[in-house]
Design brief:
72% helix, 6 helices, mainly alpha
């Protein structure tokens, strides 16, 4: 008895390898900036209510808590932006139909 296999689709394995590589890359960046991301997230929470815990930094900068809060809230959320970028890449990986398209990501 002879078994004949139709062409085996390499895309699922290639796609998973790409997903794993992208996640490893983003995890490395996140690990390297964890302290900064946590500090920024906390400051964004305080800034939303002009919390006086921002007073020492405001004084250091020579501005008011309200001014510092406005400054903090005007800056993009780096962690959220990084996650949006990762999700965009994941969508492109999901949409890739050929190994060449995956390589281009």
């Amino acid at each position: 008895m002879r078994v004949v296999l139709d062409a085996i689709d390499p895309m699922p394995a290639l796609r998973q390898a790409k997903v794993d590589a992208v996640n490893r890359s983003f995890n490395t960046v996140a690990a390297e900036s964890l302290h900064r991301d946590q500090a920024h997230a906390q400051k964004r929470l305080w800034a939303a209510t002009n919390d006086q815990r921002l007073a020492p930094e405001a004084e250091l900068r020579g501005i008011t808590v309200v001014e510092l809060s406005a400054f903090i809230l005007s800056k993009p959320d780096a962690a959220a932006a990084r996650e949006m970028q990762r999700q965009t890449i994941m969508k492109r990986i999901d949409q890739a139909r050929t190994p060449a398209e995956l390589d281009a990501i």
